[in-house]
Amino acid sequence: MFNLLPGTIGDSRWFKSGVAALLFVAVAFCQTAWADNPRIAVSKSPLSLPFFVAKEKNLFAKHGVEPQLIECIGGNRCVQELVDGKVDMATSSELPFMFTVHAGKPITLITTFVNNKDDMKFLVRKSAAPEGIKSLAGKRVGYVSKSASHYFMDVFLLYHGLDPRTVVPVALRADELAGALAKGEVDAISVWEPWGQVALEMGGSKVEVVSSPRLYNQTFNLLVGNEYRLAESKRISAVLMALEDAIQLIKKNPDEAMRTMARVTGVSMAIVKAAWPTYRFELSLQQSLLTTIQGQARWAKREGHVAATNTDPEFLDFIDSSLLRKLNPSAVDFVYR
């Protein structure tokens, strides 16, 4: 048997004071863990325009926050940065959010800040589809796994009467798709802007966009890690206020906003002007967002992208309307608590 001397863990007074000291350190650590301004992973996409305008016009600083904007190629990669703990917030379409919630990761969607029914593009090598989209059966289609590109690919092919399981899917990064199409490494790609325009420029006369009705209303959203949400609601609110100011500037000065979009994303002004009417910048949480996510969850299960045995999460539990409701109650649909 061990004899515990005074001053060791056996001394209850020492033990209690030691625990108290450890708790003090732990609390102090938690209070300082978020002392720096937030790190936000922002997709380098026209959809992220409010963040670029807010930074350029010092709107974040106006509301007492100076976030570090970390660019990434695609919302799926931004969300991965969030899941890995490298950032505190991330921008993403709703599809990576759906997959991440399905995986049980601790994230929350705070607001939608833009939606667009025409951001996704399906491009083909003309030689690969001489008789239309059905000619792609057995051919290679490039896409970004578990992203809006993935979902749009399936929806687009089904619309044109082609079972997605009859093509050869080739998972690539968004910034690899244009080059793969131009080199003939894939026969078609499903991609968002500005990479659709890049693919057209790289492919020249060999590549074309296949027109289709607006099959998919894509949203772009602000996601936060749950620990950060609980600890730093004031800073998140400051970010929301800056985004709201940026959106009002975009609406008031569209020509300047278009120039910012072209400069930041590398898309020509001609392309930006043509696409401009398709963007709807607005802070919101609408019922349609939840409906879309639920539909995508059914698609993911049906196509085997998540295990058929998985129970669908209650996505409402991963959407927090409280901060947006304080900023603008009318921006929140009744479905969100």
Architecture blueprint of SSEs:
Elements: H1 12-33, E1 39-43, H2 49-56, H3 59-62, E2 68-72, H4 75-83, E3 89-93, H5 94-102, E4 107-116, E5 120-125, E6 140-143, H6 148-159, E7 168-171, H7 174-182, E8 188-192, H8 195-203, E9 207-209, E10 218-225, H9 226-231, H10 233-252, H11 254-265, H12 269-275, E11 279-284, H13 287-302, H14 322-327
Parallel strand pairs: 1-2, 1-3, 6-7, 6-8
Antiparallel strand pairs: 3-10, 4-10, 4-11, 5-8, 5-9
State the gist of this model.
The chain has 337 residues and is of the alpha/beta class. The protein is built from 14 helices and eleven strands. Strands 2-1-3-10-4-11 form a six-stranded mixed sheet, with helices on both faces. Strands 7-6-8-5-9 form a five-stranded mixed sheet.
**CATH hierarchy, class of the largest domain:** Alpha Beta
Task: Please state the overall shape, judged from the principal axes of the Cα atoms.
Answer: globular
Quickly count the helices: 14
For the record, the CATH architecture of the largest domain stands as 3-Layer(aba) Sandwich
Helix-strand string:
HEHHEHEHEEEHEHEHEEHHHHEHH
Mean pLDDT: 88
Number of domains: 2
Return the structural class.
alpha/beta
Biggest sheet descriptor: 6 strands, mixed
Given as residue ranges, the uncertain stretches (5+ residues, pLDDT < 50) are 1-34
Distance between the termini: 58 Å
**Total number of strands:** 11
CATH fold-type name of the largest domain: D-Maltodextrin-Binding Protein, domain 2
Oligomeric composition of the shown chains: single chain
